[in-house]
Amino acid sequence: MPPTDNAAGFRLQGRSRAPPLAPPVLLAPLAGITDLPFRRVVAGFGAGLVVSEMVASREMVQAKPSVRAKARTALGMGEAGTSVQLAGCEARWMADAARMAEDGGAQVIDINMGCPAKKVVGGQSGSALMRTPDHALRLVEAVVGAVGVPVTLKMRLGWDDDCLNAPELAARAAGAGVAMVTVHGRTRCQFYKGRADWAAIADVVAASPVPVIANGDITCTATARQALAQSGAAGVMVGRGAQGRPWVIAQIAADIFGTPAPEVPTGAALVALVGAHYEAMLDFYGTDLGVRVARKHLGWYLDAQGGCPPALRRALLTAPEPAYVLSLLPEALAPAAPGWEDAA
Fold first, then answer.
1. pLDDT at res. 21
2. Candidate list 89, 115, 163, 220, residue with the active-site label
3. Among 88, 128, 225, 267, which residue's CB has the most CB atoms within a 10 Å radius?
4. Which of these, 142, 113, 108, 138, lies nearest to 128 by C-alpha position?
5. 238-277 pLDDT tens trace
6. Is the pLDDT confidence value at 336 over 50?
7. What is the pLDDT of residue 74?
8. How many CA atoms lie within 13 A of 125 on its CB side?
């Protein structure tokens, strides 16, 4: 399905309840980042799908609160579907967690076969599953059989340059009922080094009877166009490019697929957006933890705007009191912040 300037997206195949992915520009799952507050902000600007951070299936079923919190979905978000990404290596836990996520409001279940982290791979989950495709397919079959919502798969090109088996695995997963495949254009052994190989994703597109989404190093309209042209994918998934710029997914969609352009916030509107996101994180995590977790997002917002003096940035990112953080936002997010330069 080649992209066009007025593409309306596509509907995930194989399930009657499949939500349309319009536009086909999606938010990637990012550990410790794509929590419920951030997904809500991104969805508010417009995205075809927003995906939760990776959720460990067994820990979710066994009622570990911090893990279940990752899977919390935003019912009635409106602008975008919500997908919960599950990781694991045992069919029983994957199926049970998928049912729980569906019961909690997930519109899509995504299976993680791409995480390169040593802890995840050491547990034979994530991208380690690409080394055992027969076992990986048993997990796919278990999840597909457990839920009535669409099941998708996210993976890499392969384990290493000698094991580039993404095309074969995508075709087999589609045969088992997977409705969409996302491919990060690196092998596991590359981690995040070098550049994503979007052209290599074309082999997966050719082998897959279901839509393929390109992922990796897609940060703006220009890189999205390049990824689509080189891969022939049906859409793109944006990860780190959305940090501090939750509107970028909607911008890419407007430029390439002709959807309404987002109103990029500046000035008071930006302060209001960041302040609301900050307060939503405090509500979600509790004040003590929320203050700490929110600092990385505040840093990304400052990075995206530029021009914040070091002393002001340091004050904002170390302040323990939420009220003080909120009071600093207008100055910190302004094009220039006079009065702090001398203190740097």
1. 76
2. 115
3. 88
4. 113
5. 999 999 999 999 999 999 999 999 999 999 999 999 999 9
6. yes
7. 43
8. 21
291 pLDDT more than 70 = yes
- Among 271, 339, 341, CA closest to 309: 341
Using DSSP's 3-state secondary structure scheme, residue 118 falls into helix
Instruction: Supply the pTM of this predicted model.
Output: 0.90
- Identify the pLDDT of residue 15: 53
**C-alpha to C-alpha distance for 263 and 207, rounded to whole angstroms:** 38
Task: Answer yes or no: are the C-beta atoms of 50 and 80 closer than 8 Å.
Answer: yes
Q: Is it the case that residue 18 has pLDDT exceeding 80?
A: no
Interstrand relation of 180-184 and 235-238 (parallel, antiparallel or unpaired): unpaired
Per CATH, the number for 10-257 is 3.20.20.70
Domain boundaries, the chain: 10-257, 267-343
DSSP per position, 151-219: EEEEEES-SSTT---HHHHHHHHHHTT--EEEEESS-GGGTT-S---HHHHHHHHHH-SS-EEEESS--
- Average pLDDT, whole number, for the chain? 89
* CB 49 within 8 Å of CB 27: yes
- At residue 60 the predicted structure's pLDDT band, cuts being 50, 70 and 90, is confident
115 in catalytic set: yes
3-state secondary structure 235-299: EEEECHHHCCCCCHHHHHHHHHHCCCCCCCCCHHHHHHHHHHHHHHHHHHHCHHHHHHHHHHHHH
**C-beta of residue 85 within 8 angstroms of C-beta of residue 29:** yes
Give the per-residue pLDDT at 6: 38
Taking alpha carbons only, the member of 9, 5, 6 closest to residue 235 is: 9
Comparing C-alpha atoms, which of 267, 52, 296, 220 is closest to residue 152?
Answer: 52
Among residues 254, 284, 255, 166, the alpha carbon closest in space to that of 214 is found at 166
Specify the pLDDT at position 17: 52
